[in-house]
Amino acid sequence: KAGVTQTPRYLIKTRGQQVTLSCSPISGHRSVSWYQQTPGQGLQFLFEYFSETQRNKGNFPGRFSGRQFSNSRSEMNVSTLELGDSALYLCASTLGTGVAGELFFGEGSRLTVL
Amino acid sequence: GNSVTQMEGPVTLSEEAFLTINCTYTATGYPSLFWYVQYPGEGLQLLLKATKADDKGSNKGFEATYRKETTSFHLEKGSVQVSDSAVYFCALSDLGRGSTLGRLYFGRGTQLTVWP
Question: How many angstroms separate the CA of residue A98 from the nearest CA in chain B?
């Protein structure tokens, strides 16, 4: 069973640019969540999508957005990049229903903003 | 609100030593508690979980007991190995008002290094 796949794994951008990250969840999983991981702030929740609808959102500015497609694949976008957006962006998938259980994480997309 | 506090690292141990990583939490509802592990260059993976008070989660020799009275979920292992070197995260899922299955609240992580 294939795991969560994130692309690209590494990317470098400059301030002011925008970036799109992609996440393919485990087959059958309908919920995709995104997290930002930095040394200073740790793991912070960005948003969660379920059946193409955003059902939860963390405390991030509107420059951070996402979407989910009918096949459950998800993308997140960061516009007008700032130096502080440099981070490891992790995607996680889960079935999305029932009791709290395991999130399955991808290996992440490491974004460097210069 | 919901939050998780875990002991600061790094933790450095010799092989076969006893490990404890402390974790305490604050939650508004009835949380489920988790320990995740992140090996170098990899994403997080679930190590163990407990969904109600007094439950004990266990996996790969690691154990943690959900203590509601002390709001704690400390991770323990009796004899660590070099291969246990990683970053360990305590987390909670609180399905009270405003939260969803995909949202976990994580501690800051504890780096564990085990020397042979």
Answer: 8
